[in-house]
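ok new one. same drill as before - structure tokens go in, u give me an amino acid for every spot. 341 of them this time. try not to just spam alanines like last time pls lmao
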């Protein structure tokens, strides 16, 4: 009898290589039932049992893979957010310089006191009439005129200009605020997660699953969408300003902005029609969720069904009130159509 046979078979409850390779997770009883069904033997030798050293190496390998995947994903998100924050900071600084000059257009024009005095003196000199031996002036005093003076209205284009530029500034600052919040979340998720022990690996995996479950990546994708919206609003306000200053400069600027808009829109929607297109961006992924036929059809059906249900409830409730009034007030119309309920 050989040395391997002398060791004898292992117990049913022990994990073996053939079973764990084919059907992982089977208990001892389930393994025996499966072996009887397949007509195989459960007499595996003890050399086929995983040793503690092998289990330790396997666990270290799993822990290192989890650590690499978690660190790689968090590092990629941090670098992406850093790029967005730099762009948002520079754009907000430039936009603030424009807003400082544009908000003055919303304030009423304050007349220059020296200019007002000169205008008053000129008007009085022009209104002198000589009737010997008197010299009369028909011009009213400045105190009387001040009561009738009124500020000119704010131009409509100035209102649109400030609305667009301040909205752009708000979107830019909002993207920076969201980026800072997400960086805090990522920093908190990676704290106290050093090493490859079982406790640390389980904690790291739990936090990684939480980031995926709460769609942190989708929140990060909102940041470039906000920045692109801020740029679009700024360029629109710039065109409003230029059209009221010089039409030639405004025309050249409009052509350049139109080319940029065509390029941006084309590269954003092109992956929706060609799956092999590499121009995939966060706005493209959001559009794909709406563009997906099954999801679009589901949203459409749900919207139609909800609208019909709300409409039916509204008219049913109204007709029920009308029938109630019919018994009280004798409404012939409601009494003649009770079958509509």
């Amino acid at each position: 009898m050989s040395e391997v046979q002398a060791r004898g078979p292992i117990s049913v409850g022990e994990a073996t290589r053939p079973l764990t390779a084919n059907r992982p997770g089977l208990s001892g009883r389930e393994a025996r039932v499966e072996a009887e069904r397949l007509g195989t033997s459960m007499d595996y030798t003890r050399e086929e049992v995983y040793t503690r050293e092998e289990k330790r190496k396997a666990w270290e390998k799993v822990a290192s893979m989890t650590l690499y995947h978690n660190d790689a994903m968090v590092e990629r998100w941090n670098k992406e957010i850093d790029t967005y924050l730099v762009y948002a900071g520079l754009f907000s600084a430039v936009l603030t310089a424009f807003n400082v000059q544009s908000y003055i257009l919303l304030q009423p024009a304050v007349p220059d006191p020296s200019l007002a005095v000169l205008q008053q003196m000129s008007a009085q000199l022009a209104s002198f009439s000589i009737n010997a031996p008197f010299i009369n002036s028909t011009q009213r005093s400045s105190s009387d005129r001040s009561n009738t003076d009124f500020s000119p209205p704010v131009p409509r284009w100035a209102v649109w200009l400030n609305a667009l530029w301040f909205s752009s500034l708000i979107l830019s600052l909002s993207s920076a605020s969201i980026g800072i919040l997400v960086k805090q979340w990522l920093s908190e998720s990676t704290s106290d997660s050093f090493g490859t022990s079982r406790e640390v690996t389980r904690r790291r995996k739990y936090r990684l699953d939480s980031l995926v479950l709460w769609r942190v990546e989708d929140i990060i994708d909102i940041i470039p969408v906000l920045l692109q919206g801020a740029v679009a609003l700024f360029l629109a306000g710039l065109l409003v300003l230029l059209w009221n200053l010089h039409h030639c400069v405004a025309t050249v600027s409009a052509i350049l902005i139109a080319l940029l808009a065509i390029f941006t829109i084309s590269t954003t929607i092109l992956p929706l029609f060609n799956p092999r297109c590499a121009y995939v961006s966060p706005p493209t992924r959001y559009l794909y969720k709406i563009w997906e036929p099954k999801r679009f059809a589901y949203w459409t059906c749900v919207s139609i069904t909800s609208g019909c249900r709300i409409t039916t409830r509204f008219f049913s409730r109204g007709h029920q009130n009308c029938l109630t009034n019919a018994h009280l007030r004798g409404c012939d119309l409601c009494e003649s159509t009770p079958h509509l309920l």
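DSSP finds 13 helices and two strands in the chain. and btw The two ends are 90 Å apart (CA to CA).
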